[in-house]
């Protein structure tokens, strides 16, 4: 027997054993192997699809978060502007109220000053009148201390009354 040319019996039995192994592997081994390969391929396919879906969801979430951020910034700007308007309005209202209150206080003070002025003038007039009466009384007492001067004064007053009646 030579290595390069095998005998017919050896080739026959090798072929029979090869066909047996091929049959056994075809019947029991390859279906299991191909099924496992198919399951693995399906799993990889599902994983790829899940990864694509997750990536799409992530992109959607990023887009939504960017939209939300833009909306939040716009809302923030709107709220700040409204707050500024309200602040300015409150300041202007406070200034207006303060001016009105100041005008009321000034008017009240002017009225109070005017009233005090009038009261002081009345008091001064009353004091001047009282002093005048006191001075007149003293002058009359001094002048009317004599009988002659009393008669002269009476005549003089009667003449003035007659002149006033005419």
Main β-sheet description: none
Overall structural class, as computed from helix and strand content, comes to mainly alpha
What portion of the residues fall into strands of 2 or more residues? under 5%
How many individual domains?
Answer: 1
Oligomerization state: single chain
Number of beta-strand segments: 0
The rounded distance between the terminal residues' Cα atoms is: 192 Å
Question: How would you describe the overall organization of this protein?
Answer:
This protein has helices spanning 8-143, 147-165. It has 166 residues and is mainly alpha-helical. It has one domain.
List the helices and strands and how they pair.
Elements lengths: L7 H136 L3 H19 L1
């Amino acid at each position: 027997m030579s290595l390069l040319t095998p005998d017919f019996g050896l080739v026959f039995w090798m072929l029979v054993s090869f066909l047996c192994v091929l049959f056994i592997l075809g019947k029991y081994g390859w279906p299991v192997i191909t099924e496992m390969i198919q399951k693995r391929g399906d799993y990889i396919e599902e994983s790829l699809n899940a990864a694509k879906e997750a990536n799409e969801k992530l992109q959607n979430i990023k887009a939504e978060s960017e939209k939300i951020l833009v909306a939040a910034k716009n809302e923030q700007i709107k709220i700040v502007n409204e707050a500024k308007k309200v602040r300015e309005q409150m300041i202007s209202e406070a200034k207006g109220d303060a001016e009105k209150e100041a005008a009321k206080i000034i008017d009240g003070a002017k009225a109070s000053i005017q009233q005090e002025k009038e009261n002081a003038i009345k008091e001064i007039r009353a004091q001047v009148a009282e002093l005048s009466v006191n001075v007149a009384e003293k002058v009359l007492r001094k002048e009317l201390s004599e009988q002659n001067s009393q008669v002269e004064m009476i005549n003089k007053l009667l003449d003035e009354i007659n002149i006033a009646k005419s």
